[in-house]
Please model this.
Amino acid sequence: QLQLQESGPGLVKPSETLSLTCTVSGGSISSSSYYWGWIRQPPGKGLEWIGSIYYSGSTYYNPSLKSRVTISVDTSKNQFSLKLSSVTAADTAVYYCARNPWFDPWGQGTLVTVSS
Amino acid sequence: QSVLTQPPSASGTPGQRVTISCSGSSSNIGSNTVNWYQQLPGTAPKLLIYSNNQRPSGVPDRFSGSKSGTSASLAISGLQSEDEADYYCAAWDDSLNGRWVFGGGTKLTVL
Model:
């Protein structure tokens, strides 16, 4: 059974870079059929797609975040990662990773708070 | 402001049938398929319907999806207390070089 697990710091200072990793287990991230994505949810609000990556490294990002986002993949570790630069309080959210194209399954999510 | 529009709330009594709408445009629902997600309190979203009307294995057939033009709907029949959750629609949007877009979510209350 495929499982995804997010990991990374729960607290990031304003103007710094948020870094998270998603570890995939129970299946290979190198499957040719899927992309792997990041989605976030601010407290009490809805879902926002951040971006997705293919195992080859091909990426596509939400235009609203593109200037600050980098998603990378490490097939040897069956992981993909998110970096979001120049964060502000508006980036405080639960960050999820999920398999594209249907966003299924999802990781349990990790809360990242941006605060000094 | 979400690209896909959902009613913020919906409600029903046990056993009833409820529907949740999702309105979009020609660049998203009008030209691509729609997925639906269920988010129980304090948990991650779960795929409920994909490709407009397909249920993943394990999802009860009480849940069904449909699409017409630039709108989609999620129907829940035989409403149960455990269906109380937030529901989100999503679709690929062809504008701005392409992006996934979500609805703002609908909170379903079982009275």
Remarks:
- The CA atoms of residues 30 and 68 of chain B lie 8 Å apart.
- The interface with chain A takes residues 2, 35, 37, 43-47, 50-51, 56, 88, 90, 92, 96-105 of chain B (CB under 8 Å).
